[in-house]
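Suppose you are handed a protein chain with no further information: no name, no annotation, nothing but its sequence. What can you learn? This example shows the usual starting point.
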Amino acid sequence: MYKLSLIIALVLFQLTGMAQKPFARDIENFKKQDLENTPEKEQILFIGSSSFTLWKDVQDYFPGTKILNRGFGGSSLPHLIEYADDIIFPYHPSQIVIYSGENDIAGGANAEQTFERFKEVYKLIRDRMPYVPILYISIKPSPSRMNFLNEMVKANMLIKEFIKKEKNIKFIDVHSGMMKKNYPIGEIFTSDSLHMNAKGYEIWKKKIAPHLLKK
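A reasonable first move is to predict its three-dimensional structure. Written in structure tokens, the prediction is:
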């Protein structure tokens, strides 16, 4: 009886610890989805923050592809590392598309720190998946985050220059297409001036589509 009580206590302790981890509920929801409907292997995997999470109809934008969206809103680059064994490697993706870094800077990281975090994510993937093609989507500008714009531009530049020297990874510049006269185009954002509407995603589609693998 004592052993059974101890086992139950340990399980409850682990569950409580898991519940306290940032984004644990998002990850558990992904696992639940996977149990209910096992994803095909070798899909194009989208990982990152809310710009992917809110792209509910992303598959409709890219006919001729198979996309698995595992973006979780509010996340930053370290969270991709923390949950890599849950949201990256089990899916054996044919290609990985990353949008992350914006929340790092908004959360207090500078451009150099964000760049170093990106390199950690990249190395983690490359160590386990040496040849999988990767697309990195540049950090977007947002009207509500103009105070971070300089750091975001600098981070984009550092990451872009690094990617130029690597194989099987491309830097996708969505930032410039979302700007007009040095300010983000207001009509492509929702009322929160942070997240995009369909017009914003159309800009992303045009930038991303030529680089996605076709089935």
